[in-house]
Amino acid sequence: MKDPFKLTGKKFLVTGASSGIGYQTCLSINQQGGTFIAVARRVELLKKLISECGNENDFILADLSKTDDIEKLVEVIPHVDGIVHSAGIVALAPAKFYTKELMNSIRITNFDSITMLINLVVKKKKINKDSSIVLVSSIAGVFGMKGNGIYAASKGALISIAKVWANEFSNNKIRVNCVSPGMVKTDITNKSIEDLSLEVIKADEKKYPLGYGEVVQVANPIVFLLSDASSWITGQNIILDGGRTSII
């Protein structure tokens, strides 16, 4: 019998693939027998990824904050069996420090980019029936955290639009889900340490019953959502936070 958790014969487009969750998701797709097209801006890291996983995989250099890059990307990709949107940026700012530039930069990368990408992929019929789309949101999109308003809004928007797409694409059995990680040990976490201080980060980690997450602990649920093992799951948001938001 076919293993429903395997991805053999399937190809996936992964954004934000040069580091963190996106990079590990590509590794995990490869481990489960699937192939990927990695999308990011840092060519050396993308080359390293391909060297680890083999040349049956591919990468495309693209800046998803630029409309032209998204249009060119959709033109050159083959038909895919799923999309993972891991590209994203984070910046902390209390309400009195919001600027138009900050709002635009976060929204364009975190939300507008995947909205346009999905629009074009569907329009050009580049995504197969029975496919799976996974958007990487955040617990910030569900729970209010001080100083996180603009980032939280962009991530909450992903959760909302995923539910709409799950409904719209259901006729083609295309599933759409989100994962919402808490703090995961990535470059973004390191940036938070720079912004907040190591002491603040250590105090925050103590609020996580299972500690801060590793990227593989997010990539594995993503791969599950890409696989046939999750064929009856759509329109959902899975929180991955080591218990952080389940305790008082």
Textual characterization of the structure:
It is a single chain. This protein is of the alpha/beta class. The longest helix is centred in the middle third of the chain and has 24 residues, at 100-123. The chain has eight helices and seven strands; from the N terminus they run E-H-E-H-E-H-E-H-E-H-E-H-H-H-E. It starts with 10 loop residues before the first strand and ends in an 8-residue tail after the last strand. The chain has a single domain, classed as NAD(P)-binding Rossmann-like Domain (Rossmann fold, 3-Layer(aba) Sandwich), CATH 3.40.50.720. The model has no long low-confidence stretch (mean pLDDT 94). The chain has helices at residues 20-31, 43-53, 67-76, 100-123, 149-168, 187-196, 198-205, 216-226, and strands spanning 11-15, 35-40, 58-61, 80-85, 127-136, 175-181, 237-240. Strands 3-2-1-4-5-6-7 form a seven-stranded parallel beta sheet, with helices on both faces. The protein is globular and about 50 Å long.
Indicate the percent of residues in helices.
Answer: 40-55%
The CATH homologous superfamily is called NAD(P)-binding Rossmann-like Domain
Shape: globular
* Domain module count: 1
What's the CATH architecture? 3-Layer(aba) Sandwich
* CATH uppermost class: Alpha Beta
Q: What is the H/E order?
A: EHEHEHEHEHEHHHE
Keywords:
248 residues; alpha/beta; Rossmann fold; 7-stranded parallel β-sheet; 43% helix
Describe the structure in brief.
The chain is an alpha/beta fold. The chain is 43% helix and 17% strand.
